[in-house]
Amino acid sequence: MRLKILNGCEASAEGAISAGCAFYAGYPITPQNRFPEYMSERMEQDGGVFIQAESETSSINMLFGAAAAGFRCMTSSSSPGISLMQEGISYLAGCELPAVIVNMARGGPGLGDVTPSQSDYFQSTRGGGHGDYRTIVLAPWSCQEIHDHTYLAFDLADKYRNPVLVLGDGLLAQMYETVRPKAKKKRFPKKPWALDGCSGRKPNSLKSLFLTPGVLEAHNWKLASKWARIEKREIRCESYYCRNSNYIVVSFGTCARIAKEAVERARQEGADIGLFRPVTLWPFPYAQLAECLKNAKKVLVVEMSLGQMIDDVYLAARNSDARIFFYGRPGGGVPDPDEIYREIKKK
Amino acid sequence: MKAIYQRPESLTTDTSIYCPGCGHGVIQKLIAEVIDELGVRERAIGIAPVGCAVLSYNYFNFDVTEAAHGRAPAVATAIKRLLPSRIVFTYQGDGDLAAIGTAEIIHAAARGENFSVFFINNAVYGMTKGQMAPTTLTGQKTTTTVSGRNPQVHGFPIRVCELLSSLDGVTYLERATTSDIPGIIATKKAIKKAILWQMQQKGMSFVEILASCPTNWKKNPSDSLKWMKETMERYYPVKVFKDPGNIL
Ligand SMILES: Cc1ncc(C[n+]2csc(CCOP(=O)(O)OP(=O)(O)O)c2C)c(N)n1
Ligand code: SF4
Ligand SMILES: [Mg+2]
Question: Which of A195, B38, B139, B216 is the most exposed place for a label (fewest CB within 10 A)?
Answer without folding.
Answer: B139
